[in-house]
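Anyone? Bumping this.
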Amino acid sequence: MIEMKEVNKYFGAFHVLKDVSLAVGRGEKVVVCGPSGSGKSTLIRLVNRLETHQSGRVVVDGVELTEDPRTVDRVRREVGMVFQSFNLFPHLTVLENLTLAPIWVQRVPKKEAEDTAMHFLRRVRIPEQVDKYPSQLSGGQQQRVAIARALCMKPKLMLFDEPTSALDPEMIKEVLDVMVELAREGMTMVVVTHEMGFARTVADRVVFMDGGRIVEAAPPADFFSAPKTDRAKLFLSQVLGH
Amino acid sequence: MKWLRDNLFPGWVSGVFSALLIVILVKSLFAFVDWAFLEAIWRADANACRAAKGACWGLITEKHRFILFGTYPYEQHWRPAAASVLLIALWTFSAFRAFWKWWLTLVWFFGLALIGMLMWGGVFGMPYVENERWGGLILTLLLSTFGVAFAFPLSILLALGRRSDMPIIRALCVGYIELIRGVPLISVLFMASVMLPLFLPSGVTIDKMVRAQLAIVMFAAAYLAEVVRGGLQSIPRGQYDAAHALALPYWRRTWLIILPQALRVSVPPLVNTLIALLKDTSLVLIIGLFDLLSTVKISLTEPAWNGFGIEAYVFASLVYFVFCFAMSRYSRSFEHR
Amino acid sequence: MANLEERRIASGFGFLNREAGFEIGESAFLRYGAADSYLRALFVGLTNTLLVAAIGIVLATILGTVIGLCRLSKNFLLRTVSGAYIEFIRNVPLLVQLFFWYAVITEGLPSAREALSPLPGVFLSNRGIFFPSFSSVPELQGFNFAGGFAISPEFAALLMGLATYTAAFIAEIVRAGILAVDRGQNEAAHALGLTRAQATRLVILPQALRVIVPPMTSQYLNLTKNSSLAVAIGYPDLVSIANTTMNQTGQAIEGIAVIMAVYLTISLSISGFMNWYNAHVAFK
């Protein structure tokens, strides 16, 4: 599904990703974790070209991402993204948020788009909010709408960039529940998160990053019980400690 | 090369635009350089100017003394020149944060006194020159400087008054601010210039310059009041709470705690108001004062130099631009702190 | 008050019904002759002001929006040229620019006999700009054109100056408005597959408008007030005609009161509209 080979990225002079290689198979769930500044957000943003890489190859669903805008468009139609700050469109209702892209990008007729929207709203368990504006919803509800919005494009792959980091603690569970259900249904997912419980439950692989490199990658059982590197051990002790 | 590609030709449409723009720009640049420099006449020969294709900078060569100094006596021109330089120096000096100490007011006081002495004369062997003969650049600078100097304290009072708990004070302040901001500057100038003499006891006249200065101060104060109000509103509530808790009386509170914070935030919009004021002084032309724009316009009325308005106003634009652009850069530098 | 009596000025607005006795160079809508009253003369001034303000606002908005968008362009040339335009225009007094435009038209354009004609029936000369109207086509008669639709040099200069000046300020407002929209909105839109044009139109612009409208209306107000500079280049707007009236009748107080009352009404109406807009349409 995703193939990254020796990818390097610089922000100006700062070398944020160093020779990173990663492969994600269809239906696989990968959790990316690590200390802040390790480059994990940048990594997943490379997949839908919200960031560009300076060297190496990034191939998504058989399409290599290059400077050609057509490759970018094709990839973005198949990849859904959920952001830390939700990024819902505040001037549109929930329904309009969900139907905007299907109507304008996929040219789906309005009625069909609305039916799809309702379907996914039910899936994230807030169908009654359909005509509300984002500012009228709680953080947890907004993020679930954001997930539904991404799902309405019927993507083959979903990216999550710290989806629960901006939420109050009591709302984290409702969002994680939705993500777990999504995982169980077979969606290919790459999730950057600090929620280790989620990783343990759902992930096929945990990828630990530090200082722009992938330091360790292993199935959760192995990673959490017996981390191989010192940096991973240090990170786990800090995260799981509290 | 890559920079060129990214910034000029990122896509088809953009590339076409760039190509077109480059062609237009280059052609205009050549035409302008041709008009303004190559074919231009620099010496003060009106006939040569009319015969030539290029710009007539001879107008400036011939008239620049009048444009800069107005009807000030010719041999004494060094005085307004020195005064202008001194005033600009004062402003430049005040721009450095390091000099924002209590003694800055003293520096200004002595500087302005010196300028007054230079301009009026009557001492140290300098002949007296009445202020009806002042004009040109120094007049523009003086009107702006005193405009801001007097408008600023007035605006603070207005802003505080607008937030006052006493309904009459508040109504008066709001009324004043909204009235002045709702009408054009020209009407305020007319008001001061034409109406004011009518209300004075007979025999008492006010200098035209003072009338114009009064109008400019009244006008600026209303706009500055809104700037100060913005600064006052931007102070977190906690500051007011703390000041109250310390049981400081109103004026002490305001002077020591509230105002310093509000004013620090207000420096960029304050400088922007000064820029606007400098531009607005050009309106005194309409009530018959000889500011910089006025002298430029009058220099065109001489029959020999009639018809070179474009050159004249390009010159005027450049002078104003230099001052205003410098100030706006300065104001912009505050946003990066 | 002794001063007032000394000058034996009759206070009050009675003079408005007296015969004006002066001609007005151009009138947008109303017909006027020297035998009409001062009141009618002032009305003509008002309509002239409103005409130049209305057209000026439309032109300034279009020009300003285009330039503001150019400032945000990826194209370096577009960005720099529009930036230079804004910097220069904003740092030169409007009055200087008005005089400049007037000089361009009266000195730069050829005389009527040698008028430029970019399109058939359209003539540009230092006597003005002439268009064909529905009923007649401008024709050279002697030293000037007759027939057709005429734009005087004064009107043209005022309009050009006001529009280009205000456009520079509007450009900055548009740019600030678009930049004020959260970066994440653009990212979310692009992540969903919207093109740059679609994202701007459907997501960014609607949100930017809410930030843009208040300062934009303020600029419209400024343009209207700035039209009062017409008195300096000879376009017969309200202030210009009130000035003539004051000079002829000596009724300075009433004249100024009229000017202020009219502009105050315009300002308060526009502020009133702004408040209504903020309460009803602005961000939910």
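Late reply, but here is one note on the structure posted above: Strands of chain C lie at 123-125, 128-131, 139-141, 144-146, 149-151.
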